[in-house]
Amino acid sequence: MGHLHQVDHYLRLYNVIGHAVIGEKGEVTLNEIAETLCCTQRNAQLILHKLSSLHWITWIPGRGRGNRSKIIFLREPDELLLSVAKEYVQVWDIQGATALVTNYSESFPYIRERFEMWLNSQWSMLKWEPNHLQGENILRFSYEKPFLHLDPAYGYLRSECHIIKQLFDPLLIYHPERNHVEPHLSHHWERDSTGRSWRFYLRRGVRFHHGPFLVAEDVVYSLERLERSSYCWMTENMASVTASDDYTVDILLKDADALFLQILSNEHLSIIPAHYCEEIGRDFFRFPMGTGPFKLLRNDHAMLVMEKFEVYFRERAILDRIEISIHSVGNLQKYREEDLQQWKVEAKTASNVMMLLCNLNKPGYPSDPRFREVLELLLVREKMIQELGGDRGKVTESILADHEKELVKKRECKERIEELLRQLPEQKIPLHLYTFDDRDHQEDAVWIQKQCASVGIRIELHLVSVAELLKVETMQFADIILDETTIDDLVEVSMLELFFNENSFLKHLLSEELKGFIQNRVTELRQKEHHALRLQQLIAIDQKLREERAYISLYQNHIRTFSSADVKGSSINAQGWIDYRDLWM
């Protein structure tokens, strides 16, 4: 965009001329113009010519001595600002547009709100935009954070994992409706009588987005590579992974595992191109190539763009292109009810659970069961949801609330809190509560801090980036961590991720005793063929963690998706996102 300086010149002239009326002539000399713009008369003439060519002003130079020149302003200043900001957005420079509006927000107090309203109307909802010239259907919406880690072995955030599922494919695919693992990149598999030796046959003709065919070498590389990631527990039971030929992979397990096929269907075990990954190195995080239904075209701090992969090996997506703008989405409460009624709304309770984790390995309050009981009784979830509002939807007592039938709700008991506080030793230093630096986590943390302060417990807040919070030294230093976890359709694998992922806060904050208890139960669980029996083991683990107050469950979010009435097939998944391959118009 080249209009930034011209906007500044226009506004300075408009303000200095004073009491200018749009469309009416005002008198001024070229020397006054030059002084206003802090430039030579020659440069002033060039600037006036540029503003005239943009049709922002009409400039009538004075002829002869003593004849003053005349200037006609053709654009209202605030409308001009808004128009130029929109031009920035049209070339995907949303950060530039926001900066422009912010720079002039003092002079034009309402311009920022008007711009945000317009921007939200363009991006904050799912919009299907037919491109009649090219016969394309484009989905456009916005998201607040860039997608930094789209590598299956390193994706952490729910948003990242969702995009990974659009770009990549695992060997197998799990269908929650049928509770069954089905063929995907592998069209057939066999195992021996011990359940330890497995052979997988790959589909032929599956292409990566950059052209090469997928072969067994890529599968071996992808699975072995996980040994160096936070998800190493997923492959630690694999004694060996070998390629018998280009389309046959043999996997030998150390022990038989009833969850083996489910684990292979997880997005973190998606298959990546070995040679491309080695060639591109760390850039694979931001610009990976997979075999999935969508191919990545752009991924930076301003925008993520994907297009339909035309030679996808399964049924192709109907949607041609997805454009995700990276900027603050704003708040739907700004919209009038009649505006929102024009959109289709889908709502559900998310599978995420917001929870507090105490560091059971630190001496003092965090490892003192009396303090953890105080914390649980003090934090009244209904009050939290009512006071903070937003997307906080439902009180939950457990991360397995959807699977446990009998959960006792905790009630605030002032007498019990006072009794426990009398038993606790004097607090000499503040407790360090760490959480992510986004708005919802900050609001929750401040609310928790105030509740604790009401009974004399001092909390110091640390709002940090994802990268900072995932550092082991940060986890070890923290007394309390406010986190949210998602238990998706693969319940058993989701729970095991919570217990064993290297980037799991629970894994690092649990006592050695509880880690041993979990390990023993999980070992039993992985020998049971039936889902119901495995779920019983998980519920037993969860009950133990809640009894020890190793975590304190707070609430689940309420998710609403607003979309154009033309958009069909939009259903919210466990991560709170929509599977784009199912969308149609």
TrEMBL record:
<keyword id="KW-0238">DNA-binding</keyword>
<feature type="domain" description="Solute-binding protein family 5">
    <location>
        <begin position="181"/>
        <end position="501"/>
    </location>
</feature>
<feature type="domain" description="Transcriptional regulator SgrR N-terminal HTH">
    <location>
        <begin position="8"/>
        <end position="104"/>
    </location>
</feature>
<dbReference type="GO" id="GO:0015833">
    <property type="term" value="P:peptide transport"/>
</dbReference>
<dbReference type="GO" id="GO:0003677">
    <property type="term" value="F:DNA binding"/>
</dbReference>
<dbReference type="GO" id="GO:1904680">
    <property type="term" value="F:peptide transmembrane transporter activity"/>
</dbReference>
<dbReference type="Pfam" id="PF12793">
    <property type="entry name" value="SgrR_N"/>
</dbReference>
<dbReference type="InterPro" id="IPR000914">
    <property type="entry name" value="SBP_5_dom"/>
</dbReference>
<protein>
    <submittedName>
        <fullName>DNA-binding transcriptional regulator SgrR of sgrS sRNA, contains a MarR-type HTH domain and a solute-binding domain</fullName>
    </submittedName>
</protein>
<dbReference type="InterPro" id="IPR036390">
    <property type="entry name" value="WH_DNA-bd_sf"/>
</dbReference>
<dbReference type="InterPro" id="IPR025370">
    <property type="entry name" value="SgrR_HTH_N"/>
</dbReference>
<dbReference type="InterPro" id="IPR039424">
    <property type="entry name" value="SBP_5"/>
</dbReference>
<dbReference type="Pfam" id="PF00496">
    <property type="entry name" value="SBP_bac_5"/>
</dbReference>
